[in-house]
Amino acid sequence: MKQIIKKYQSYLLPVLLALTTGSCEDWLTLYPQDRVVEENFWEDKNDLLGVRYAAYQNMQNTLNNFIVWGDLRSDSYTLNPVEHDDQGNRDTYKKITEGQLDSTMAVYDWGGVYTTINYCNKVLAHGEEVLERDKQFTPSEWQQIKAEMTALRAFNYFYLIRAFKDVPYINQIINSDKEVSSFPTTNQLTILDNLIADVEAVKGQARNRFGLVSDTKGMITNSAIYALLADMYLWRAALRQGRNIEGYEDDNRQCILNCEASIAALKNQNAMNDASSGSSGSIMSGLMETDEYGLIQNDFTLEDRPELTAHQAIFPSKNSKESIFELQFAVSDLIKNKILGSFWGNSNGTHLAVSRDAVMKLYKDENEFKKDTRTWYSSALRIRDLSSSTGTTSTIRTLSVPYMYKYAIIEVSEDPASSNGSNKDFYLSEIITSEYENWIFYRLADVMLMQAEAHACLNESEQANTLLKAIYKRSYKTTTPSKISYPTADDLLVLVLRHRQIELLGEGKRWFDLVRYAERIGGGTDSDPVETAYMNGSEGVVAMVDNFLGITYSKLASTLKNRIKNRWGLYSPIYYMEIKASNGMLSQNPNWNREKYAH
Questions:
Q1: First vs last Cα of the chain: how many Å apart?
Q2: Distant-in-sequence, close-in-space partners of 53: CB < 8 Å, separation ≥ 6
Q3: Among 128, 98, 69, which residue's Cα sits nearest to residue 559?
Q4: Which of 83, 284, 327, 384 has its CA 20 to 30 A from that of 227?
């Protein structure tokens, strides 16, 4: 834990001194660096709000880890095959995708996440005293901030337990090594129980919206709290079901209820934004037609042409009406979102391409695949090759390995050399990327698909299909996609996860979806070296590889089953420096316990 503490010391005071925000107001009282004494810092609301903003800003530093933990091991990607200019990270990511995780990989350093948690703990610990000192700070304001910080802390812990399973659980302020007595790992399910209880206690008490749309979408609101609760209930349902613990059906039902509450809160938030003369959503988002759920609709007037206006509103335009919680990046803050250029694209600085075999599993044939407009920004098939341009013309080439352009402004054009009618071919004619795109954590379609998954787990096929159809309809190039119906709950669950894959591709969620699937199946014997009271989850691992990972990594299917082995293999190793610094208080994930790093 000393590694965590060193990060607290290195991050906290500099951020308190130097933090700036994208808003017009300066939320910090700036003291000379050599005079800062923390006990004298918490004087008024602005001090509290400064640390609150620091929590969000610090998440910009942990975003890379969030994506790797939540997505990289999944079936959605292959490595970029072109020559690479970042060979060190490329080698690391290659090993991770092949199931060769190592505790020396720096991407498993969780210290930055605990820094964010510590900021939340500081706000929650000092809020009452600020309320007493600052007479301009009202109890209702403190209640809203308390709810917001409680949920943000839970949000970061939720990432940790999904990535590492059992982690240290600390809800007290840490300022120095001297304050660390012992922080062993706490069981994942125990932490999750506490997180759900904490967030349940504050749901509905946060703000519905802020004065600026960038704050409304960029900070925790009531809609985000309900989305987080739905996500945590869905995860707990899987853990309980795979361990034969009662209550998983109730958890699935709670997931559904919180999804409905999140969608209702989002509708209310957008209505308030529309009614406010001082703020509005993205221009494109505000003008677009939405369905009964609030999904922005594509205009399929030209049915033979891919329609991407909804995509443009949700991603490159930022802070759309579908957005629930997205991390803000702005040119004015001079903090770039380097993740998008690093992971996705088609240059020699990009790490990941899209597994076409995996995303094709949702569709019956190539023609159906091409009619879903999401395939054009999530796994582009054809592109104008600007490198081969001669004069005003350029070569249009079919990509053997497709790339993801979800966060870019793209334009689809018709290939003049293609056939007429239903056989027309299209290609990406222009791609404009930015280094300041936001990162979406929760959006409307994600919540709807969580709800569909919970319905599928309860064998409520009609309700699940209704949600799937709404999401499919807005992206499919015919106005009446056929009703999707699968005979069993398990088949329906696989279908939901494939819809989540194509809809949420490149949003850092796929591996967590697969872990939840494997945990839900569980199985095996009580031979787990650590968690002896529970089945070790080997049947879930086999099903997950057979249904998902084995499609992308067909040559590695048997190897992946052996490398993942059981439920511990679904989670990541603890960074070896944390193990070394813990004086025996932390135990390494037994599946990744390499002898040379054990001491």
A1: 15
A2: 19, 21, 27
A3: 98
A4: 284
As to burial, measured by CB atoms within 10 angstroms (0-12 exposed, 13-18 middle, 19+ buried), residue 236 is buried
Cβ atoms of 384 and 427 within 8 Å: the answer is yes
- Give average pLDDT by consecutive 10-residue segment, the chain, 599 residues: 40 41 29 47 92 95 95 90 77 91 94 94 95 95 98 98 95 67 84 98 97 95 98 98 95 98 97 71 60 89 75 93 96 83 72 86 81 82 60 65 84 74 72 88 98 96 93 75 57 93 95 98 74 79 94 92 93 92 86 60
Whole-angstrom distance, CA of residue 272 vs CA of residue 266 = 10
Which amino acid makes up residue 142?
A: W
Place of tokens 């334009």: 411
Residue 459 identity: N
| Backbone phi, psi, residue 119, to 5° | -60, -45
Structure tokens at 149: 């910080």
DSSP state of 352: E
Distance from C-alpha of 553 to C-alpha of 486, rounded to nearest angstrom = 26
Measured over the CA atoms of residue 446, residue 472, residue 252 and residue 162, the dihedral's sign is: negative
> Dihedral, CA atoms, 412, 414, 419, 421, nearest 10 degrees?
80
> Do 500 and 516 touch, CB atoms closer than 8 A?
no
**Which tokens sit at 227?**
């989305």
> Model's pTM, two decimal places?
0.90
> Which residue has 């007290």 as its token pair?
172
Give, for 412, the enclosing helix (H) or strand (E).
Answer: strand 409-414
Spatial separation of the C-alpha atoms in residues 18 and 375, rounded to whole Å: 42
Spatial CB neighbours of 88, under 8 Å, sequence gap ≥ 6 = none
Q: How far apart are CA 165 and CA 571, in angstroms?
A: 6
Helix (H) / strand (E) containing 439: strand 439-443
517: tokens are 């699937």
User: In sequence order, what E strands does 336-438 have?
Assistant: 352-354, 382-390, 393-398, 409-414, 426-432
Retrieve residue 253's tokens: 């039902």
DSSP labels for 225-256? HHHHHHHHHHHHHHHHHHTT-TTHHHHHHHHH
